[in-house]
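During the reporting period the student researcher (J.K.) took over the structure-prediction task from the postdoctoral fellow and processed the backlog of single-chain submissions. One of the processed entries is reproduced below for the supervisory committee.
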Amino acid sequence: MKLVPLFLTLTSMCSLVASDYQGDALYSLKMSLKVGPDQLTNWNLNLVDPCTWTSVQCVGSTVVSLILSSIQCSGTLSPSIGVLRNLTTLVLQGNNISGEIPKEIGNLSSLTNLDLENNHLNGQIPDSLGNLRKLQFLVLSQNDLTGNIPQSLSNLHNLIHLQLAYNGLSGLVPDRLFQINKYNFTGNNLNCGANFSHPCASRTSGAGGSKKSKIGIVIGTIGGVVGLLICVGVLFLLLRDRRGGYKREVFVDVAGEDDRRIGFGQLKRFAWRELQLATDNFNEKNVLGQGGFGKVYKGVLADDTKVAVKRLTDYESPGGEAAFLREVEMISVAVHKNLLRLIGFCTTPSERLLVYPFMQNLSVAYRLREIKPGELVLDWHTRKRVALGTARGLEYLHEHCNPKIIHRDVKAANVLLDEDFEAVVGDFGLAKLVDVRKTNVTTQVRGTMGHIAPEYLSTGKSSERTDVFGYGIMLLELVTGQRAIDFSRLEEEDDVLLLDHVKKLEREKRLIAIVDRNLDRSFDGAEVEMMIQVALLCTQPSPEDRPTMSEVVRMLEGEGLAERWEEWQQVEVTRRREYERLQRRFDWGENSIYNQDAIELSGGR
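J.K. obtained the following structure tokens:
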């Protein structure tokens, strides 16, 4: 009779133990870094759960990301960091950290991004970094590192971005490192050996674009101009009233800034009491979900209209009010059938609320993984419609709006389903308005682990291609029904990341093992294969290699996928041959640390 409570107690104890050792390690790191009195104030051992600490991101109770960029710390790196074995991202760039790089970082076997750029680190690069087999980004530029580049870095077959510029390194550059897609050895006293056929100091990208890609640029430019004219025309029409005149702008005073005004077009301004009644005083029973800045409640207005009310709970914190203003400004101009329409807003001296239509079929994530007994599973035909509708919504944001819009958190949980199960992209709280003259924008990293593009985690620079990466992961969610990160797969000695898991199964041609079991084999194998190919093209490590969303739409409609997939496979064949050549050259045997399985279909070129 007491098995369930006992199980829950044991589970809680396990979580507490995990939190304790992770919290101890992070607190030790904080102390060694000598952060300022106003930095990391909630990194407190009395707060047991480190997943609530600033700059720490978790999956469940497991710490997977730590980003402490430019916080002006001046200490050293504690070896205790090595106990966080599930850490995938460690970014400490732009500080004044001194001392040596702890060899214990080599214990972080899940690490894909390591960025220690622009500090005062000295000593040699530890050989132990060669143990980080999943590492894709290694950035150690602008430090005081000396000695040779370890030969062990040749073991990092997933590495696509290596930055060692402006240190005091010397000796011979390991031959394998010249095969990396992007590298920079500038500002050292290094010997390139016999690699005169390669750019010695640096290489910033892979091979040049094909004729097809250049034509795509021209078409994309024309499409952007047409889209701009459409957006201007839509705005012009929205500003006119039925009598042929211009509408008066609806203004609202933002609390604390009496002279600041924002035009909201046709949006309705709700009274606080109206939304309080609609949600039964924001009853927890009406919570539909919780996002980065607050909870979303189901509500019913006085005229029986069902709505979803997003209540910002931290608008006073950095980014909170900005998120409100950004979302209101953006959605008022972004009008598309596959984008969530904003009905109105409410502001008080202490509250910010947004009001949307209620989506009765909730989110794609709910329909994939959280349905209740008796509810219908998403069939394959509906999943195809969701894929195409989502792609069209993102294409509109990227290519038909000025300023263009980057969502920055594309995932199944942020794609809603209307009464006809049409896809509606929602939650623009993390979106960013970008001037069309800029190619990318540097911001605080926002999003959900497992869905964030590697270059965004590494550099903080987002672009349309970061959305394309997230969209590719969403396609894999649609096909598999699984989460982007699933630690339960560790029990089967499988990949935690859904992307790695699918790539492995695709390489082994195990189609049935990829597809969601809830479909009960009611799907078209060729269409599943097509969707997986599009997903893998979208999630390539290098953003330049990913398609645009307009190209994705065309591929999903049956145009251009075969050609692009064939091009990519030819490059993959060339890369495999290069690995085989290196294997013969260094005479790696069966007991070698080299592992052919590590060469994945969308690895570095």
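The committee noted the following: The radius of gyration is 25 Å.
J.K. will present the remaining backlog at the next meeting.
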